[in-house]
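To: structure subgroup
Subject: Chain for Friday's discussion

All,

I'm putting the inputs and outputs inline so they're searchable in the archive.
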Amino acid sequence: MGSVSTAGLALAVADAGGVGSITAMGMTADRLDKVLADMTARTAGILAVNFLTADIDRDAVEAAAARVRIVDSRGAVGCSTISPVVRIASGSCPGPR
């Protein structure tokens, strides 16, 4: 999604009944948490965060998992790299913490 996965677009998609998705690429855990806090305050729709890199910040994953319904690795990394994560959609190892 890269530069096209803006918070505004994700909110519009979530409000329309879809899954609004942003990328966590380049965001620190604190920045991601602030962005997601704002987004979740503005919609009751489904939001997702994509981690599309092998260099995943575990704190950012935890921040995302605390705020959105879907945390997605798209298979970019193996389970052991990001476990334990609450929700992984389309990754290879969904499961509870």
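Points worth raising on Friday:
Residues 29-42 form the longest helix (14 residues).
The beta strands are 19-23, 46-50, 70-72.

D.
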